């Protein structure tokens, strides 16, 4: 029996006891047959393992993709919850910045921005930028009692982008004729966020403590 025929016979459904005995005899006597069978088994094993590894990798990729989607969803839900909490308790969270704080209704903000665009004080794009703010509050300054607006960017972890948005949007609102303070609010702030806030005169409300523009986090809390 040749090596090729023996291997073909081995995988044949008609492979019986006699053929099996002959095959074993061939393996005992023929080194080439043993090596051929070992290579066949090894190749099949490698191929099977490779296929299994590929399947596992694909399953892992799908799992990671789903986890990333869940992370984004959870982050969005957490952000909405955070914004809602700040809006509902604006007077409590932002009383160190302004008195009698309340959320500025969107209809009123739209009228202000539309008028500013009509007066060419700001562009349509800038007006839309302000509309994207997490919240715009209105109140009165602590000392003079003058009207003031707070442009707030809220995030669990405040970073440099949050600071930049708050500063930019408050500056646009100021050009529209409304005195505005940029404010970031969250549980914590990143290093780059803290540096940007101090450089751009942005208020920070972190974990219930208020830090005026220029004051480092951990010192000078209001």
Task: Give an account of the 3D structure.
By secondary structure, the protein is an alpha/beta fold. 59% of the residues lie in helices and 18% in strands. It has 8 helices and 8 strands. The strands form 2 sheets. A 6-stranded mixed sheet has the order 1-2-3-5-7-8. A two-stranded parallel ribbon has the order 4-6. It is rod-shaped and about 105 Å long.
Summarize the structure.
This protein is α/β, with parallel strands linked by helices. Helices cover 59% and strands 18% of the residues. It contains eight helices and eight strands.
What are the main properties of this structure?
222 residues; six-stranded mixed beta sheet; 8 helices; 59% helix
Total beta strand runs: 8
Per DSSP, the total helix count is 8
Order of helices and strands: HHHHEHHEEEHEEHEE
Helix/strand/pairing category: alpha/beta
Determine the fraction of residues in helical runs and give it as a percent range.
55-70%
Strand share of the residues?
Answer: 15-25%
- Estimate the global geometry from the Cα principal axes: rod-shaped
């Amino acid at each position: 029996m040749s090596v090729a025929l023996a291997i073909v016979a081995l995988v044949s459904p008609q492979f019986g006891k006699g053929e099996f005995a002959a095959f074993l005899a061939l393996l005992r006597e023929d080194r080439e047959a043993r090596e051929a069978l070992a290579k066949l088994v090894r190749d099949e094993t490698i191929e099977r393992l490779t296929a299994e590894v590929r399947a596992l990798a694909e399953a892992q990729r799908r799992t990671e993709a789903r986890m990333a989607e869940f992370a984004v969803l959870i982050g969005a839900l957490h952000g909405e919850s955070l914004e809602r909490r700040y809006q509902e308790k604006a007077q409590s969270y932002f009383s160190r910045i302004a008195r009698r704080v309340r959320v500025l209704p969107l209809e009123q903000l739209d009228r202000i921005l539309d008028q500013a665009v009509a007066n060419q004080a700001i562009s349509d794009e800038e007006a839309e930028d302000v509309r994207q703010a997490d919240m715009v509050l209105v109140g009165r300054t602590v000392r003079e009692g003058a009207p003031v607006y707070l442009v707030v960017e809220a995030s669990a972890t405040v970073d440099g982008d949050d600071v930049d948005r708050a500063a930019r949007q408050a500056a646009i609102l100021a050009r529209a004729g409304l005195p505005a303070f940029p404010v970031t609010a969250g549980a914590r702030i990143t290093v780059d966020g803290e540096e940007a806030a101090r450089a751009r005169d942005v208020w920070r409300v972190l974990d219930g403590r208020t830090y005026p523009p220029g004051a480092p986090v951990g010192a000078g809390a209001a």
